[in-house]
Amino acid sequence: MTFNRLYAGWLIVLAVTAFNPPLFIEVFDLKIYDLLVRYSAPNRPDPRIIIVGIDQKSLDAFGRWPWPRDKIGEVIEKLEGFGAKVVALDMTFHTHTDFENIALMDKIDAQIVKEKIDVDNPKFYEKFGQLKNNVSRDKALAGSIKKAGNVVTGFFFEDIKKEVSKTSAKEKTIKETLRPFRIKTVRRSADSRDATLWFKAAGAEPNIPIIQKVGAASGFLNTWTDIDGIIRSHPMIYEFDGDYYPSLSLASVIAYSGAVSSTQLVFTHGMLEGIDVKGKFLATDPYGRILIRYHGPDSTFPVVSIADIMSEPVENEKIRKQIEGKIALIGATATSVYDLRVTPLGITAGVEIQANAVSMALNLNAITKFGWQKALDIILALFLGIFMWWALPRMKALTGVVVTTLLMAGLFWFNFLQFNVNSIWLNSVIPVIAIVMGFISVTTDQYISEQRSKRFIQGAFGRYLSPKVIHQIVENPDLLQLGGEKRVMTAFFTDVAGFTTISEKLEPNELVTLLNDYLTKMTDVIHEFDGTVDKFEGDAIIAFWGAPLLIENHTELCMRAAIRMQKTITESKKKWIEEWGAGLATRMGVNTGPMVVGNMGSKERMDYTMMGDSVNLAARLEGANKYYGSKILVSEFSYQAAPQNAFLFRELDQVRVQGKKNAVRLYELIDTAEEATDELRRMTAMFEEAVIVFRAKKFEEAREKFSNCHKEGGEKDTACELYIQRLDHLLNNPPPDDWDAVYDLAK
């Protein structure tokens, strides 16, 4: 696909997205809003707000929720005594007290009366409790609210939608009950004579009349939940039957400011613009909502427990200082009451959300989102898209990435500053899409080509190269030569000693599990040291170092890997014995030399492998370990290629090898120089001294030295035993004068 076609398609998508953003774009914008709130939360709650919590401590003190209503009245009276300026109730009382839930004290009182007047009527308890609850508890709460004179009650609107439902006689009574609490003054511009709220309430559920009528103010408790279930905005105004009603938070601020008569709704340009509270303007959206800039997660606002309020006298200075002159929001903070909501900062108590809304209204710092932002999004998106289309083809790939990243970072930073400093929320997703799509349209062709190359490399080499090597090849494909070539490399062969016997003792599934565990551990080590796994042949591993990447120290890496593998086997042996009753021992052969490496096979199946005499010698050395009792057998070619003094070796023998004119010296790789102990070094020196004497034809002296070496070693040393056997034979059958101490490896 050509660039111009990609760009044309992108331009169409951009235009459609900008004019009519799909749902996922809106959700993305909301999530970005969450991040802005999270990282700019002021975390300094307004000191004029206090939450009076129905917490677990209060539930333990006064019983499970809901409490008797006279208890709420007692709390209100106590708050009045502590000097609260406004008491807001984040709860409703829309039904009379439940007569079926008669308190224990009522039963006790009824029992006393029954005993005195000998009443046996089974309905006695019910009637007694009903009368007491109905008359005393609702009336007691209403009396407390009226006496305080500063209580804002809460209620709910029903079925919020764009069309007003038909009213009933009951709803008419409800409206008459609520009308005293409406906002009475509405200010309209010339173009807003008939403007209304975009959403209207079809019904309401106020408190029972005895409670609803006595409040100093009243506000609805409805919240607004976005499509992902998170509360980001808060409705401040609802329209109901042509009247406008404040939320509990707004009603609390109006009461606190003494602005009941001076509060005005302001309509301009055919829609609601905001609310004027005693000369201070709170901007809203056309739905009557504000965006909440949360001060922090749950419990950011100070909370005083009802249990503490009720247990202390009003003279208590500590509690008085917390409450006096403040807006006291009574609400549930205990998780068992289940008044928990989701906000951008996590699970939050409903009363905490009310406190944040009160703070926004008090400080006029709610987040603003302008109505003309959609037009701004379109202009900005088109500008950025055209800029990317023009600029990126003129840049190198890395420069293009940097410019794209800086553009997005700059956009996010600008939006963050506007949010944090000016409380303005600018959309980020559509402009970012313009940047990203512009970048994609320029780089797609190159990207597709690069991905095709990467998939080929990963498919061809993923089975036998380490992720690190794969990454190097992917980043620089020129390092890879897939055709056959001759290189000096290091070949590596391993085989598990006595594996046939082990396999006969285990069940098939046990054998496979054990073998997989072993091969995984060994492969991990090979990859760690930049080796390439050629293939697995049963329990055998064939690997090499020096291809496909050219590695100068391939011999050293191979030897270090071999030592690490032996130590890994030693560490794993206990586990293998416990789980499968088999402790594995592995023999290894290492040889360095010229060999052919490349992709070999048929058209349907190819393997990246090696071949040549040097490879064959490594395979023979692996098998020769059994003869010498060694674990890692190394040719003189690898010995010479290894860094001087990096490893501890002992020279074992010199042998004739098929395909080689001269004898080949064999060395046992014992350990790295830095980890070899002094005792290992001493025993190695004793052995090599004995070998020198042996080659000098001093057979009796050599036998004595090998015997001493074998005894002092403390463990079975097959190499010492081999030389002792050779010497016994030579002492009984003296060799010819041209004897060169070279043995045939094949024999």
Q: Number of helical segments? A: 24
Indicate the radius of gyration in whole angstroms: 44 Å
Residue fraction in strands: 15-25%
Distance between the termini: 66 Å
Please tell me about this protein's structure:
The protein is α/β, with parallel strands linked by helices. The protein is 48% helix and 20% strand. The strands form 6 sheets. Strands 18, 19, 20, 21, 22, 23, 24, 25 and 26 form a 9-stranded mixed β-sheet that branches. The two termini are 66 Å apart. The chain is built from 24 helices and 26 strands. The chain folds into 4 domains: 3-40 and 372-454, no CATH class; 49-363, no CATH class; 478-672, Alpha-Beta Plaits (2-Layer Sandwich); 677-747, no CATH class. Mean pLDDT is 85; it is low at 99-108 and 162-166. The longest helix is centred in the middle third of the chain and has 33 residues, at 429-461. It is found in: Cell envelope. Residues 490-622 form the Guanylate cyclase domain. One of its GO terms (biological process) is cAMP biosynthetic process. The chain crosses the membrane at residues 6-28, 375-392, 398-417, 424-442.
Question: Topology of this protein?
Answer:
Layout lengths: L2 H17 L3 H18 L8 E6 L1 H7 L6 H13 L4 E4 L14 H14 L6 H25 L2 E11 L7 H10 L6 E4 L11 E6 L3 H4 L4 E4 L12 E3 L1 E4 L2 E4 L1 H10 L6 E5 L2 E7 L2 E4 L5 E3 L11 E3 H6 L5 H7 L3 E6 L7 E4 L2 E4 H14 L9 H19 L5 H26 L6 H33 L5 H9 L9 E12 L2 H7 L2 H21 L3 E6 L2 E6 L8 H27 L5 E16 L4 E6 L1 H16 L3 E4 H6 L5 E10 L7 E9 L5 H18 L3 H15 L4 H15 L10 E2 L3
Parallel strand pairs: 1-14, 1-15, 2-3, 2-15, 3-6, 4-10, 21-23, 24-26
Antiparallel strand pairs: 3-5, 7-13, 8-9, 10-11, 11-12, 16-17, 18-20, 18-21, 19-20, 21-22, 23-25, 24-25
Helix pairs in contact: 1-13, 1-15, 4-6, 5-6, 9-12, 13-15, 14-15, 18-19, 22-23, 23-24
